[in-house]
Every structure is written in C-alpha cells, then in structure tokens.
Amino acid sequence: MTRKLFIALSLALYAFAPAGAAPATDTLGRESPQSSVTGFLEACRSRDYDRASQYLDLNQIPAAYRQREGADLARKLEAILNSDPDFNIGDDFRGR
After folding, report:
1. Are residues 9 and 41 in contact, defined by beta-carbon separation less than 8 angstroms?
2. Are the C-beta atoms of residues 54 and 66 closer than 8 Å to each other?
3. pTM, to two decimals
4. 63 CA to centre of own chain
5. Fewer C-beta neighbours within 10 Å, C or N terminus of the chain?
6. pLDDT at 68
7. Which residues of 85-96 are buried (b: 16+ CB within 10 A; e: fewer)?
8. pLDDT tens, position by position, 34-72
C-alpha cells in the first residue's frame, strides 16, 4: 500500500520543469521528486493547504476552480497519507 501511495503522490506532484524550458529558480524548491514530496508534506503539516496545492498537478481542473479545489485536494491527499500506518518518509528519502 505504501508503494502505491508513493507512486500516486509522485505522479501528483510537480518534479521537473517541462522539457526545453529554461532553468528557473523554483520558489517552492521543487528541484526533485524528493524535494517536492517533502515540501508538500511540510506545507500540510503547517496547515498551509494553498501552498501545498502548488505541489499538485492541477492542470485538469479549470483555472477558475484551481485555488479552491487545489486546497481541498491537498487536504484529502494528506488524510490518505496519514491514514496509512506504513507511510513513512525516512532520512534516506529526504536526502539527509
């Protein structure tokens, strides 16, 4: 179950800039899948679901609804991750 959640979370989070895009500094620190997951979890722990939603790929949601829906989806993803007793991000994942 943990593996499935990790895969789903990795797919939901931004990891890299689109191919061909000029490298830019990402103010959210989404330089790798690991930093994206860590940033998402830290935003959720701070109850900053607007910021957490910025780690999610919301391109399938109409722009007019992204802010409201994004924060709600971030809360729901946090609840799913918290409900799995096997979900644990260890120091190896964090790059420490």
Report:
1. no
2. no
3. 0.68
4. 18
5. C
6. 86
7. eeeeeeeeeeee
8. 889 999 999 999 999 999 999 999 999 999 998 889 999
Q: How far is CA 54 from the centre of its chain?
A: 7
Across the range 13-42, mean pLDDT stands at: 74
In angstroms, the CA 96 to CA 89 distance is 11
Per-residue pLDDT reduced to its tens digit, 79-91: 999 898 888 776 5
N residues, the chain? 96
Query: Are residues 28 and 55 in contact, defined by beta-carbon separation less than 8 angstroms?
Result: yes
56 forms beta bridges with 13
| 48-96-56-52 Cα dihedral, nearest 10 degrees | 0
Contacts of residue 10, Cβ cutoff 8 Å, sequence gap at least 6: 33, 37
CB proximity list for 32: less than 8 A, separation 6 or greater: 15
